[in-house]
Write a structure and sequence with these properties.
Helix content is 52%, strand content 8%. The protein contains 6 helices and 2 strands, in the order ααααββαα. Helix 1 packs parallel to helix 2 and helix 3 runs antiparallel to helix 5.
């Protein structure tokens, strides 16, 4: 019982620390929002109301990010408000660092395949293992969407 009591006390301490961190994140985002003008387009309706991550912040991330970015990233399949916040914290809102998304951004995230070709045949096509947090977020989003052949056919010309 003693050890269980200690574990509960540690859990409560960590939850208070997470709450304190959330308040700091919310305060910082509020300073960023205060320095930017209102977006022209209204915030679209939310796709889902359930929280997908246990440690997701307890404030309205979606509205804040819409105000900062002028678009709602949570409308993308597989990306929720918390994932969008994590992406923006990793990448930032200035995408001009990468001249093209197809080559430069995917190379930076190590999502570009390393094709091994011999005699015109593709021997292997794998992405590099890396510790890039942006790549991890995008991979998780892709896995949560899963394969949708019908959707892929609609997107192709």
């Amino acid at each position: 019982m003693f050890v269980l009591g200690q574990d509960l006390a540690l859990y409560d301490t960590f939850q208070r620390q997470i709450e304190s961190c959330d308040k700091q994140i919310e305060a910082y985002l509020k300073t960023l929002v205060d320095s930017t003008p209102e977006p022209e387009a209204p915030l679209p309706a939310a796709r889902s109301r359930r929280r997908t991550h246990r440690n997701e912040p307890h404030f309205d991330v979606r509205t804040t990010l819409h105000h900062l970015l002028r678009t709602d990233l949570s409308q993308i399949d597989g990306i929720g408000p918390y994932s969008a916040l994590r992406l923006v914290s990793e990448i930032g809102k200035d995408m001009s660092r990468w001249p093209t998304a197809a080559n430069h951004f995917t190379s930076w995230t190590t999502l570009a395949p390393q094709n091994k070709i011999s005699g015109g045949r593709v021997l292997s096509s794998r992405t590099q293992p890396s510790g890039c947090r942006t790549a991890a977020i995008l991979r998780m989003a892709a896995m949560s969407v899963g394969p949708y052949p019908d959707r892929a056919r609609r997107l192709l010309p």
